């Protein structure tokens, strides 16, 4: 087998192991027309190269990552682009150009948040790489992103938010605790660029995936931990993702809202909940409301959002996505009233 074919077979094998597929040997044999002994030769080679580790059990192997970790002293380092160019870009230089561009945007955005919003004295960056994907963590010892939002909201609005409510403000993409200096878009776009994205602070979790709303178990983390993952061979393009939400003339005018996450898994019933959501949508021209995992919405909530608010704001279009028939019916009634 040619080297290029062997590399493809090894990558296929690694992917099956990463996905914890118990038939990883048979599927590699079938996909590449090789013998069982050849597949185990691949496994031996991957172990010798430090890409696989034998752990036993029902899934006897696991992927190993090459890990690089460093700490940023924020009293000495103020420029996120210099940190990226000096310390991180060389670690990603073998990735396709589209992946490098995505990582440059994502990492510099998260470093900027830590440097300018968190009031942290130190930021730890961890880069984990395998042949399949890259994982990056940005952890700071600051006040914590959700506590910072709670403080800013209390000062501006005079209201006290729970940590879950503070996290919900990040889903639309325009909230920032420093509106005079930031647009608040970094977390929104980074979360859409990544395969997996999560922010943990205290016991609260912000993510688009199906993980639990609260980061239960373990010690309370007072700073902010950002976790990002992206396949090395991603076909995603930074410009294409941006174009889904940004108008050339008007800027960031389209957003997507995971409704079950914004409302913490609860069913929104009240007009006040609809008004808070409406406030989050100020400045947008179009919003896709994703009702995945939401069983229903209350009639008052529906009327306020799809009746009162949309009529008052003729420039705003709301589009329901993945709504079951009960939710769709509630929306239709609200729009008719």
Commentary on this structure:
There is one protein chain. The chain has three domains: 3-63, Arc Repressor Mutant, subunit A (Orthogonal Bundle), CATH 1.10.10; 66-238, Histidine kinase-like ATPase, C-terminal domain (Heat Shock Protein 90); 245-336, Transcription Regulator spoIIAA. Strand 6 (196-202) and strand 7 (204-207) form a beta hairpin. It has helices at 3-18, 24-32, 36-48, 80-88, 97-116, 145-157, 163-168, 186-193, 238-243, 259-262, 271-280, 299-312, 325-336; strands at 52-54, 61-63, 66-73, 122-129, 133-140, 196-202, 204-207, 221-231, 246-247, 251-252, 254-258, 286-290, 317-321. The strands form four sheets. It has a six-stranded antiparallel sheet with strand order 3-4-5-8-6-7. It is 42% helix and 21% strand. The longest helix is centred in the first third of the chain and has 20 residues, at 97-116. The protein is globular, with a radius of gyration of 23 Å. The chain is α+β, with helices and mostly antiparallel strands. The model is unreliable at 211-218 (pLDDT under 50).
Characteristic key phrases:
337 residues, alpha+beta, Arc Repressor Mutant, subunit A, Heat Shock Protein 90, Transcription Regulator spoIIAA, 3 domains, six-stranded antiparallel β-sheet, three-stranded parallel β-sheet, 13 helices, 42% helix, 21% strand
């Amino acid at each position: 087998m040619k080297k290029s074919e062997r590399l493809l077979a090894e990558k296929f094998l690694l992917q099956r192991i990463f996905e914890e597929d118990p038939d990883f040997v048979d599927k590699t044999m079938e996909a590449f027309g090789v013998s069982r002994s050849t597949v185990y030769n691949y496994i031996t080679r991957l172990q010798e190269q430090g890409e696989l580790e034998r752990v036993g059990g029902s899934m006897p192997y696991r992927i190993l990552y090459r890990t690089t970790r460093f700490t940023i002293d924020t009293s000495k380092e103020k420029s996120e682009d210099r940190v990226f160019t000096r310390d991180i870009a060389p670690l990603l230089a073998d990735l396709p150009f589209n992946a490098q561009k995505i990582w440059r945007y994502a990492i510099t955005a998260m470093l900027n948040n830590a440097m300018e919003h968190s009031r942290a004295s130190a930021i730890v960056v961890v880069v984990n790489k395998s042949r399949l994907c890259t994982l990056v963590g940005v952890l700071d010892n600051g006040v914590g992103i959700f506590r910072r939002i709670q403080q800013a909201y209390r000062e501006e609005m005079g209201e006290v938010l729970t940590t879950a409510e503070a996290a919900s403000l990040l889903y639309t993409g325009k909230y920032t605790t420093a509106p005079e200096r930031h647009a608040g878009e970094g977390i929104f776009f980074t979360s859409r660029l990544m395969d997996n994205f999560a922010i943990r602070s205290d016991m609260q979790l912000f993510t688009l995936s199906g993980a639990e709303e609260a980061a239960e178990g373990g010690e309370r983390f007072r700073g902010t931990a950002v976790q990002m993952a992206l396949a090395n061979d991603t076909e995603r393009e930074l410009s294409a993702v941006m174009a889904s939400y940004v108008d050339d003339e008007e800027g960031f005018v389209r957003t997507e809202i995971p409704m079950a996450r914004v409302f913490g898994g609860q069913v929104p019933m009240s007009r006040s909940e609809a008004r808070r959501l409406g406030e989050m949508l100020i400045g947008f021209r179009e919003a896709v409301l994703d009702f995945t995992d939401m069983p229903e919405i209350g009639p008052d909530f529906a009327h306020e959002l799809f009746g009162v608010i949309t009529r008052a704001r003729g420039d705003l279009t709301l589009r329901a996505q993945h709504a079951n028939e009960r939710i769709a019916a509630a929306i239709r009634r609200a729009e008719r009233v």
